[in-house]
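Before the break, one more example. Copy the sequence into your notebook; we will annotate it together after we see the structure.
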Amino acid sequence: MDAREFAGAWAKAWNAHDLDALLAHFTDDVVFTSPVAAQLTGTAVIRGKDALRAYWSEGLRRIPDLRFEVVGVYSGVDTVVINYRNQKGGLVNEVLHFDGPLVREGHGTYLGDFTNPAGAKD
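Here is what the structure looks like once it is written out:
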């Protein structure tokens, strides 16, 4: 897997708000953590692709101007970190652990405090 190629496809899917294209990169039993998940769903840990779809659907509903600009891509052993700037100008790292070609675990991490880091609207 080419980390830069993956990050480009990931950002393209997010910027198009294309959840099907985005979720195609994840295992069915994916585990994802994020302070934004806690804000939007009441739990910071999302388990399974269906739950991830529900969380991201709610996120797109509440953040209609969501847009990501990739700043840097870091490669590790079965891990890719995508450093990006969101539509608020905030810096974020998406830490993704792979099982073969698919993400099995992900973590959204935010620079600064966790007070509405993604700019979600009620």
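The chain is about 30% helix and 35% strand. The first strand starts at residue 26 and ends at 33. Try to locate both features in your own notes.
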